[in-house]
Task: inverse folding
């Protein structure tokens, strides 16, 4: 069947239009696919970034937990050798030895006061608990009498005094640190030490000085090392050579 030039041109024009539409659809499909790929790539990058940030936060949290635990263990060691003496010096009210210490935590919503937590730690030591895990476990299961003796005040839904958790005890000891705990214990012990007799020769018109006789001694802390690898030395002041009322680390290169 003969085809006129006009008809042929019309067919060609229609074919070209169809080809253009198909190309446009392919191009649009390719752009959508590219956008989806870019979105997926961005989502993956966001997930990886969040995962990396989460790992970093977790590492920081673990490092802080380790630091607090090390400080808590040092604070435990500062109290361990003085637990019995603190009970005697305080007349049984160990909590009084720690009254007035600065509270390192946010006071808002505070359930367990610092003196009560430290008193419970000393009571745990008096019950034969020496290691940090054993001490915190004993505190967490302390009876009502011991909680009352320590000055605990938070009560649970059952109306009974509630004990601080092992995590709380470790955190409190870690935040306070060994030196403030040692200083508070030393002050309590020093206050209970009988004063020495006044010296025979005093300046006329002045009250006689009454101070306890102190003995100072510097010792190497076995197993403890400074950051530079050198041994750690502690200078202690004791009354009667028995009750240590103060101690300080001797800085490196000190004669």
Result:
């Amino acid at each position: 069947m003969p085809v006129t030039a006009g008809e042929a041109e019309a067919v060609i024009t229609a074919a070209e239009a169809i080809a253009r539409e198909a190309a446009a659809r392919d191009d649009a499909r390719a752009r959508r696919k590219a956008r989806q790929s870019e979105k997926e790539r961005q989502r993956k990058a966001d997930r990886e970034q969040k995962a990396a940030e989460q790992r970093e936060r977790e590492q920081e949290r673990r490092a802080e937990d380790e630091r607090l635990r090390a400080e808590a263990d040092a604070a435990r060691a500062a109290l361990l050798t003085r637990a019995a003496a603190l009970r005697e010096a305080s007349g049984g009210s160990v909590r009084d030895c720690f009254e007035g210490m600065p509270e390192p935590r946010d006071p808002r919503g505070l359930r367990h006061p610092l003196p009560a937590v430290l008193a419970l730690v000393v009571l745990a030591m008096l019950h034969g608990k020496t290691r940090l895990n054993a001490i915190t476990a004993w505190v967490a299961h302390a009876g009502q009498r011991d909680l009352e003796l320590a000055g605990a005040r938070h009560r649970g839904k059952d109306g009974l005094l509630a004990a601080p958790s092992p995590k709380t005890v470790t955190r409190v000891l870690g935040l306070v640190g060994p030196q403030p705990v040692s200083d508070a214990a030393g002050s309590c012990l020093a206050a209970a030490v009988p004063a020495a007799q006044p010296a025979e020769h005093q300046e006329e018109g002045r009250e006689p000085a009454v101070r306890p006789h102190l003995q100072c001694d510097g010792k190497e802390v076995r197993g403890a090392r400074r950051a530079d690898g050198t041994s750690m030395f502690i200078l202690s002041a004791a009354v009667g050579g028995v009750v240590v009322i103060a101690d300080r680390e001797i800085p490196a290169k000190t004669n």
